[in-house]
Inverse folding.
């Protein structure tokens, strides 16, 4: 207690000593500053109290921001086909996102580089696939909301023992899972064979990849595409080539469902429908609107 401090200061000091948290400490320090002697000899003492208040407030601000970040619910519009990259810190998720898509995420050697979800688009066999790189498991900003609703979960590992740890975090996830053993370029051929056999024996759907040599990247793209239970339906106008971009539809869809998308529900404008592809008996077959579609069918609508 400084010389000449009064009763009010003494009470504020006791309040500080009894404080249970930083907020109570700041309140007590502010009262100590208010009631401390105000003369030339106490300037350093009062300056020390101000500094303690400043440091405590900065600490409280950092903690509020951390808690706010850890509870953030990220809102990302879900694509027709959505996959998420999931893994522990420094597993190479961001490098995979860059190798697979048009995204250019931040990549660094330190832990928890990814703090917010990064979104990229993989265009494979003309199918647009949304891929999201989530913050690493254990990061303050990691949360399972997006994982639980994703169509496909890409579990990125560098060690097979990581799989059970990651699976505990995604118990509510509904999507199909692909195990991606990353950074396979660090292993010799004999070690690769042992890793492959271990994963195969456990009956995982998996692929060994390297973002450095691009080993396994094309195989991974194929597996991602096949993981979606979707139909790619192409369209064309009479006398013109087919549109390169497909309509993405659920299984067991019909010509009628495709027409409702294309013509915004106005089926009366349709005069004739011809089809090429797996569901047709021959190229250019004329079909009705109840015809069941198959993946990679091509529809041609003639209108009135």
């Amino acid at each position: 207690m400084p010389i000449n401090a009064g009763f009010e200061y003494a009470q504020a000091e006791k309040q500080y000593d009894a404080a249970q948290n930083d907020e109570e400490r700041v309140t007590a320090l502010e009262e100590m500053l208010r009631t401390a002697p105000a003369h030339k000899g106490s300037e350093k003492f009062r300056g020390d109290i101000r500094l303690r208040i400043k440091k405590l407030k900065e600490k409280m601000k950092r903690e509020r921001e951390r808690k706010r970040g850890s509870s953030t619910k990220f809102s990302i519009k879900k694509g027709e086909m959505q996959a998420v990259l999931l893994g522990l810190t420094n597993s190479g998720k961001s490098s995979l996102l860059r190798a697979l898509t048009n995204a250019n995420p931040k990549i660094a050697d330190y832990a928890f580089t990814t703090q917010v979800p990064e979104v990229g688009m993989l265009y494979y066999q003309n199918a647009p696939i949304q891929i999201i790189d989530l913050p690493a498991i254990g990061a303050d900003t990691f949360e399972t909301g997006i994982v639980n609703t994703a169509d496909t979960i890409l579990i990125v590992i560098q060690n097979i023992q990581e799989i059970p740890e990651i699976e505990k975090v995604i118990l509510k996830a509904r999507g199909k899972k692909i195990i991606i053993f990353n950074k396979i370029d660090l292993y010799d051929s004999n070690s690769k064979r042992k890793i492959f056999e271990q994963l195969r024996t456990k009956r995982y759907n998996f692929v060994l990849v390297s973002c450095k040599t691009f080993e396994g990247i094309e195989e991974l793209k194929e597996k991602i595409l096949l993981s979606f239970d979707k139909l790619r339906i192409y369209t064309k106008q009479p006398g013109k080539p087919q549109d390169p971009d497909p309509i993405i539809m659920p299984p067991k869809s019909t010509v009628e469902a495709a027409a409702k998308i294309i013509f915004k529900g106005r089926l009366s404008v349709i005069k004739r429908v011809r089809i090429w592809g797996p569901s047709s008996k021959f190229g250019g077959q004329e079909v009705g609107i109840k015809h069941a579609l198959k993946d990679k069918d091509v529809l041609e609508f003639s209108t009135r």
Observations:
- The radius of gyration is 30 Å.
